[in-house]
Amino acid sequence: AARKSRKRRGHGHRLPRFESLERRDLLAGVAYDPPKINIRLEVTDTSDVPIQQAMIGDEFRVKAYVQDLRAQPKGVFSSYIDVTYNDGLAPTLASSRDEILFGPDFENGQSAVLDTPGLLDEIGGFGYDITGPGEFLLFSAPFLADQAGVAVFAADAPEDLRHENLVFDED
What is the pLDDT of residues 101-114, one digit of tens each? Predict the structure, then answer.
């Protein structure tokens, strides 16, 4: 009978350290039943390939996509969110709003407050062109895998009343 080989974690064996990446999405328009907008976070490498883990020292991007969920979608007019994350595991490499890449459909009213470690605050924008159905890039932010652990990126509703999540032809 064949024996299963077990790798031992003894002295002299060095395992590569990596950071697991986890995302949590947000259905915007909590007051609406059903929700009108889906906001999906995605973690990619620097070549835009989705990833679930990164080696310590790797740069990666956290992207937010928005989608109009209505039966006859016209598109998302504006979207702003807060993204929380563990800054000790994966700090953002962006030090100003200018280092965030915003999607081409959200070129107006761009916002990104980066004053608090572990928070992309009030990040988003709006556009004037009706996008229709499908997902559209809201933003892409650079990060660094700094330590081993599970880095969770979670989207939450913004606090600023001027930053709303709105769809075309309804709100």
Answer: 999 999 999 999 99
